Protein 1
Amino acid sequence: MADNQMVCATCEPKGLCGGKGLVTFKEGAWANNPLAIQVLGICSALAVTNRLENSLVMGAALIFVCIGSNLIVSILRKHTPHRIRMVAEVAIIATFVILFDQFLRAFYWDMSKQLGPYVGLIITNCIVMGRAEAFALQNPPILSIVDGIANGVGYAVVLAIIGFFRELLGAGEILGHAVPGFTSWYTPNQLMILAPGAFFALGIVIGIFNAIKGPDPEENK
Amino acid sequence: MKGSAYTLIYAAVLGTVCATVLTFAASFTKPYKEANQKAEEAKNILLALKVPLPETPSSKEVVDAREKNVQEKQLGELTTYVYSPPEANGKVLATAMRFAGPGLWGPVKGFLALEPDMKTIRGMTIYEQEETPGLGGEIVAPWFREQFTGKSIVDSAGVPGIIISMGGEPAANKVDGISGATMTCDKVQAMLNEAIKRIVEEK
């Protein structure tokens, strides 16, 4: 953390880089949670959350890609020509996504089959590109890694919450194991596994997040 | 300093670096991926033929079991996989064949196994598909695949063909479709019927 403070002392005392890594982390994972507050990247959040296991792996993928792309974009930020910065960002993001996809295909074959095209589609996930554009281009590498972890974790936690409830209510299982005694009084509702269930679950999670966080102070200015 | 030449060089260098990293990753993971694919295919042949397997077989057990129990046999232009274990003394217990075709998002490939009467389905498996997880992806789920066991590949009038559909009367050649995955079911039905047509012609 001391390192971050030193790095950040040179930053202007406002905005995302207003202080230490902890502030950046809280901002990404909670106050500006990419899924629940900014409502970005919901395509994959709706698609892969029918099982908790899928949600966890997808969350891990996003954390990995966010860290990697934020780091490299940040290191290159002073050398990247402004005009082609987005092309460069996409190339870097795509590299990390394909690396993760290859890793899954080689060592977690069954999971790779389950997630199908959605790992590859992380390339187009607005969270990753958004963090590269909004954060990594303006901030030093270490702080950018913190931001990548924060946003990845923010996404992964929300995904895990949705995946947990969809699998529980939709199939009566957790991580593929039947919950003892649960289905004796509850009939699994397949709607939760299907697309509408994803919308219900995501909507409720966004609502709860915003209720806990309270109204945005900037909105009333 | 940051003129067009610099931009071009930057793009070229970045592209080359990314491509090199990915090429290394691809060649490093290639043997693992190929082994996975081979084991996956062998496992699906065995599952379709209902060859007994341990609970969670290792890749080696799968490949060994396939070599021991299953022989490839050419039937006209059709390659069939015949389940004839050493202890059965040449008796054929089941015959499987490949089926493939376009799914909704990508190619779908699998095996259809028939009982020795060549009319009753013994098993059906799918080893490659890119359908929507949770919807079309359910074609690989046991509840969907197991419906096929015992079904007939011909209807009551003797016309070859199988039907995957949510509605209609139950029939000897009909299984339930997947709600939310009508397109995938239609495409799987088409590719199964293509395979059934071929085996009926070659028989």
Note: The interface with chain B takes residues 47-48, 50-51, 54, 76, 79-84, 87-88, 91-92, 94-95, 98-99, 102-103, 105-107, 109, 113-118, 190, 193-195 of chain A (CB under 8 Å).
Protein 2
Amino acid sequence: MSDLPAVEIRKLSKSFSGVEVLRDIDLTVNKGEVVSVLGSSGSGKSTMLRCINWLEEPDSGSVFIAGQRIGYNSDKQRPMTNREMAATRARTGMVFQSFNLWPHLTVSQNVAISPIKVKGMPKAQARDLATQLLEKVGLGDKAEVYPFTLSGGQKQRVAIARALAMSPEVMLFDEPTSALDPERVGEVLQVMRDLSGEGYTMVVVTHEMEFARMVSDQVVFLDKGLIIEKAPPEIFFTNPASERVRRFLDRQD
Amino acid sequence: MTEKAWMLLLEGAWVTLWISGLASAMGLVIGLAIALLRTARIPVVDQILAVYVSLARATPLVTLVLFLFLAAPTLGLSLDRYAVAIVALTINTSAFNAEIWRTAFLNFPRDQQEAALASGMTPATMFANIMLPQMIITSLPGLVNEMTFLLKSSPAIAIIGLVDLTRVTNRISAVTYEPLPPILAAALIYMVIISVLLKLQSLAEKMAGRLAM
Amino acid sequence: MSEWSIVWEARSTILSGLWLTCWLFTASILGAFMLGCLMLYLLERGGALAWLLRGFINTMRALPFLVLAYLLYYGLSQLGLRMNAVTAGLLAMIIYHGAYFAEILRGSRLVLPPGSIEAAQAHGFMPGSIFLHIILPQLLLRTRPLIGNQLIYALKDTSFLAIITVQELTAAANAVQATYFIPMPAFVVVILLYWAITACLELAVSKAGIFGKARGFENV
């Protein structure tokens, strides 16, 4: 284990058809840190997250996952091949707003397939890993069912187990509770809280103020594609530097 | 109808079934290959395939069978009647299947692909493990429907003298001078075969419906 | 290139085949369409007749077109009902594709929201009038792509009539190649003609979409 930051974003910019959604973003996420990313909708926070694993290709700037640049092969001075890209992405885990489970696979297969197909893990070992991770998210009894039988909260917990199965350097959460019924939000946040307790590095795009306040080490606030505030939660929520954040926080209560 | 007549009918049904079945099987694979090549959007190749699909869909099977049968020798190809029939049916059905596969590919949920890429799969691994299994399930009702259509157009092979389930009725009535019974009997056999396919199709629809949930 | 000029010399054969194909196609889809609407109306009324019609439609859907053509052309002669090949072919086209049109409309009828019909009943429309002015127009707007496909199937099915000796376009290609021994150019020309007719049909069907679009039907 090196001491390199888990994620380092340098000078990241991105526009969609002429509209700038990210401008010169710099952000460092250290190992074991939980960073919450806040901002109103359209602020660019999801785009920033999706640039970290290159699901969205930025126009300029670079992203490093534990010291390795993504999207560009620095040794050979050329864009990454599909295979290099996949290998780098495998070092991140992502949890999506709409779960994106694979409906043709059982819950256990959803968790086990990437270790088997990407890492070449033996099937029996991957199955054991899936069992163990499903226990961890409280779904040990659902291993053999298909995703359509699960509630939203359960689906999202499976998605978390699926991302954990690759033992990623960093877990990326893209509004993981936004698509859930209100009574299902708690179970997912609890799993995330447990992960932070175990020392996982996490970047969480969220609207859950309570979670950001209680769990994160850093809170980042995006507005119109710029990071306008970056502070530990104690400061961010009580004494933010910018007027824009103050107004945002006022509206939340 | 004599026992002999029934035997002849069953022989005709067998010709219909194995020729359509073989062409269907090859058409499934070739259709998938065409669909995949087209999604790669290679210049020129894509246009050629698009024209192929459009022409093959617009050409009546009777015309195509006759064309291949008569034109193949002028190109120095010696194909027997059965080979001509199978090639013609395959050309026809592969064009329709290509469109079914392509629709499944183009409509595949983007977010499932993202989840696969995010977990470190290469595009090839993703295609084999995440996309193809689901594309097969969602395309199955359409593919079985196309098999039904192929079976219903298969009597086109009669035009080059192959004795299938339709044409065999002529053979029988040439002896008995009673065309009506063999035609009705052939109709009955077609109905049995096609109702089996329709049953398969509704099963396939149930499976696809489960996946959509 | 001389083979191609022979096709040009023999153009009258091909054109007469083309004419017969177009004529058979047009007459049969008009007839089939009216038959399909009539069957839908009778299905709407229910009762024993509707039950019989369902059986008839399902039978047609399970049969190759050529079997029906054989039945009318060869089969009925045993009962003393003799038709020439063109009449038998036309009749077979109308009956067969009429059943398919009926099935397309019936499928759409099953999912038609009842609101507009109830509104018409509340306004005092008679059942026949509701069918003609409220139900049928909506079904036609909704089923445009399926009807378009059926038109193309119908066009292609006219070629089966070559097997019962109708001198349509495919038979014309065969006649030209048999006389001059030029299978390649004769069939290439004929296949391109089928392709052109199909393209025109597809264009017409897609242009017809403006009727639906103007009424907000294209996204239902």
Note: Chain A is about 40% helix and 25% strand.
